[in-house]
Amino acid sequence: MRTLIFAVALLTMPFAAQAQTAAPPAPAQPTTVQAAPELTRRIDSLPALINGTGDFEGAFDASFKAQVPKAQFDALGAQLRAQHGKVVGIEQVNPRTPHQAVVRVGFEKSVATIQIVVDPAPPHPITGLLISQVEPRSDGFAQIEADFRALPGSAAYGIYRLGDGRTPVAEYRGEAAMPLGSAFKLWVLAEAARQVQAGTRKWSDVVKLDTRSLPSGITQNWPSGAPVTLHSLATLMISISDNTATDTLLRALGRDAVDAMVARAGASDPGVTLPVLTTIEAFQLKSPTNADLAAAWRAAGPDGRRKLLRDHAARLAASKPDAAMFGAKPLALDVEWFASPRDQAALLDWLRTRGGAEALAIMAVNPQTPGDTGFAYAGFKGGSEPGVIYGSWLVRTRAGQWYAITGGWTRPDAGVETLTFMTLMQRLMRQVAD
Fold first, then answer.
1. Which end of the chain is more exposed for a tag (fewer CB within 10 A), N or C?
2. DSSP code for 371
3. Distance CA 353, CA 25 (A)
4. Residue 58: other Cβ atoms inside 10 A
5. What is residue 182's DSSP assignment?
6. What's the Cα-to-Cα distance from 311 to each of 258, 304, 305, 306, 361, rounded to whole Å?
7. Contacts of residue 125, Cβ cutoff 8 Å, sequence gap at least 6
8. How far lies 350's CA from each of 13, 242, 274, in Å?
9. Greatest Cα-to-Cα distance within the chain, rounded to the nearest angstrom
10. pLDDT for 95-108, tens place per residue?
11. Are 244 and 219 spatial neighbours (Cβ–Cβ below 8 Å)?
C-alpha cells in the first residue's frame, strides 16, 4: 500500500524533483515565469548532447558527471536514438523557474518530456536532467489501448468527461473490478469530507494516533497517542499514502460509515470490497502465518468477513507482519480493495461535486501529472504493491472541462512496472489536456 511517486531514471541526477502542487479549482492564470538566457542556452544544446555531438564536459557540472560519466551518457543517448531516431529539435519549453524547465524534445519517431535544471551561478552548467517519458508521435487512443492490451496480466482504464453525468471518452474494460492498493483511501477521504459537510466533524478535530501500520508513511514512527487533526491525517493519507494515518482516520470515522461511502459514491459491486480493511488488517491477512484466514476471507461474503475480523481480532492483532514478506512477488492479491475504472470515476465525481474545497485541496498536494499538461486543477491518489498498481486522477483543463482519468494493472505471477504503467496513464492525460 505504497504511494506512487514517479520518475524515469534515464538521464538523472543529482536532480531533486520538486512535487507539483495545485490549488482547489480556480481560473487558470497565464505563467509569468521567463527562462533565464543561460537556461535557454542549455536547452538549445540538448539536441546535440543527446545526438552525441555536443560538449558533454562543458555542459554538465562535476556532481552530475560523477554520477553519469560521459560513457554512460553516450550509451543512453545511443539507446534513445536506436529506439526513437535522432533528436530533431526542441518543440516546447515550459519554464518552472528562471533556471528550471520542462521541455518537449522532438525525436524522429517520438517526443520526450525532459526536466532540466541549470546552476544560477556562472558558468551555468546543467545540474539536473530527467526524462519523465517518451511517447510515439502517432500516439492516440487506439495506440494507447493496444499498448494496454499488450500488458501481461490484466489491465483496465477509462477517461470520463464529468458534468452532465460521466461520459466515457476512452475506455478499456471500464467495468472490470481491479485491486486498488492505496487508491482505496479515496473512499476514506470522501467519508471524512461527507462528515465535515454534514457538520458532524470538523477538519480541525483532533484524534490520537492508534495502532501502527507498516510503511509507507511517517506516522508509524510517531509517539503512540500523538494528537493529530483530521485534516493532517487526510493530507498524509493522500499525499504520501501514510498507512498509520489512514487507519487512524478510518477508525475515527467508523468502518461502517466508510463502508456506506463505498456504495454511496457509486461502486457497482460494493460486496467485493466490504468491509473496508484497514491497512494493518490487510497486511495481517496477507501474512503467510494467517494463510487459513486469508482463505476464509476469499470464500466469505461481506457479513462473513466482518465476522472473521471480530472472531479473530486477537489473533490478527498478535500477528507481526513484515514488509519483507512481500519481496518482489505478489502476495494474496484477492485480500484487497476492489473497484472498476467506472467506480473510481463515480467516486472522483462525488468528491468533485460534494467533497468540498478542502478535500480537493488535499487531493492536489501530490497530483502526479506530466509537467507539460498544464491542467488548471489536478488531484491524485494511487496505490501499488508487488503485482498491483492503480492510479486515479481528477483534473480540470484550462478550458474548464473536468475529467476522471483512472486505471490499473495487475498480474498474479510477477511484479508490475511502475514506469510502464505511468507512461501509459500520462499518455491518456495528454489526450484531453488543452
1. C
2. T
3. 12
4. 10
5. G
6. 21, 10, 10, 9, 39
7. 58, 59, 60, 61, 64, 118, 119
8. 40, 23, 19
9. 69
10. 999 999 999 999 98
11. yes
d(CA 275, CA 270): 9
- In contact, 248 and 210? CB cutoff 8 Å: yes
Residue 338 amino acid letter: F
What is the C-alpha separation between 273 and 186, in angstroms, rounded? 14
pTM of model > 0.85: no
Per-residue pLDDT, 59: 97
- How do residues 171-223 score in pLDDT, each as one tens digit? 999 999 999 999 999 999 999 999 999 999 999 999 999 889 999 999 999 99
What residue type is assigned to position 401 of the chain? Answer: Q
Dihedral through CA 254, CA 256, CA 258, CA 263, nearest 10? -170
Residue 124 near residue 137, CB atoms below 8 Å: no
Q: Which three cell numbers stand for residue 80?
A: 534513445
Query: What is the residue whose three cell numbers read 525525436?
Result: 107
- Count other C-beta atoms under 10 Å from residue 387's C-beta: 23
Cβ atoms of residues 111 and 83 within 8 Å: no
Single-letter residue type at 151: L
DSSP per position, 1-20 = -B-------SS--S--PPPP
Per-residue pLDDT of 355-391, as tens digits, reads 999 999 999 999 998 766 779 999 999 999 999 999 9
* Average pLDDT for 112-129: 96
Q: Which residue has the cell 555536443?
A: 54
